[in-house]
Design a protein that fits this description.
The protein is of the alpha/beta class. Helix content is 35%, strand content 22%. It has seven helices and twelve strands. The protein has a six-stranded mixed sheet, with no helix packed on it. Strands 3-4-5-6 form a four-stranded parallel sheet, with helices on one face. Strands 1-2 form a two-stranded parallel sheet. Helix 6 links the parallel strand 5 and strand 6. The longest helix has 25 residues.
Length: 246
């Protein structure tokens, strides 16, 4: 992996993103079973030229000590994590066969925020999982604030043939859509608060295209005619409700 990253950096890529279906299970099939944290340390140590390293979605219960150490101490690791939370209710999490409970999710978010106070957190949350009551769903709504989430990927539950969930009592389709809508509205309010908090702040923006870049915290920035691939120091002057403006 280090060789691949070095090759990408030599080709001019300013930001490298580590991604995968189950990223925090990295290394289980390799000699010595190295963890994701060890991989990030190796990349940053052996490829000093890499300007920005970003981690995509992780299962927070598998975050190892090395990964937490990198989050706390390595500025080249971008201050942004996307978590596989799925629900804010313990019984629903159990029925999903998730390996964490609500308290563990909240505690993890608090921990990484202590390590990296400016970190931006996102999460996947499913609305309308079988047996979900209104009270259970409310705990998912509350999780946005309890975990300090900025970004949400909202998924209305849909049946997958052959899964245990299909044999559970189903939530009505109209209810699923309504809950997903409310969850998206909660997510939108959280994002608006974060966008507003960026006014007057200077960020290192990775230019993705002639019209858009991303801050270290993965917030989109509207740009005009910039060269893709460059990292520019820009001061945030406002936002349009969707992207920061400069």
């Amino acid at each position: 992996m280090v060789k691949q990253v070095r090759a990408l950096v030599e080709r001019g890529h300013a930001e490298i993103v580590l991604t995968g279906v189950d990223l925090t299970s990295y290394g289980a099939d390799l000699p010595g079973a190295p963890k994701l944290g060890q991989l990030t340390k190796q990349i940053l140590r052996h490829v000093p030229e890499v300007k920005r390293l970003r981690i995509s979605s992780i299962d927070q219960v598998e975050a190892d000590r090395d990964l937490l150490d990198v989050i706390a101490n390595e500025q080249r690791l971008m201050p942004h994590l996307h978590l596989s939370l799925q629900s804010g209710d313990d019984l629903i999490l159990k029925r999903m066969k998730r390996r964490h409970c609500r308290k563990q999710a909240i505690d993890f978010c608090a921990q990484v925020r202590r390590l990296r106070p400016d970190i931006a957190l996102g999460a996947d949350i499913i609305a309308g999982f079988p047996t979900e009551t209104e009270e259970m769903f409310a705990r998912s709504i509350d999780l946005v604030e309890d975990c300090g989430l900025t970004f949400l990927h909202v998924f209305p539950y849909s049946k997958r043939p052959g899964t245990p969930a299909t044999r559970m009592p189903q939530v009505a389709g109209v209810t699923i859509k309504e809950r997903a809508k409310r969850l998206r509205a909660t997510a939108e309010a959280a994002l608006q608060r974060r966008l507003a908090s960026e006014l007057g702040v200077t960020r290192q923006v990775l230019i993705e295209s002639a019209t858009q870049g991303r801050t270290e915290h993965f917030l989109p920035v509207a740009v005009d005619g910039a060269k893709a691939g460059a990292v520019r120091r820009l001061t945030i002057t406002g936002h349009d409700g969707v992207r920061l403006t400069v």
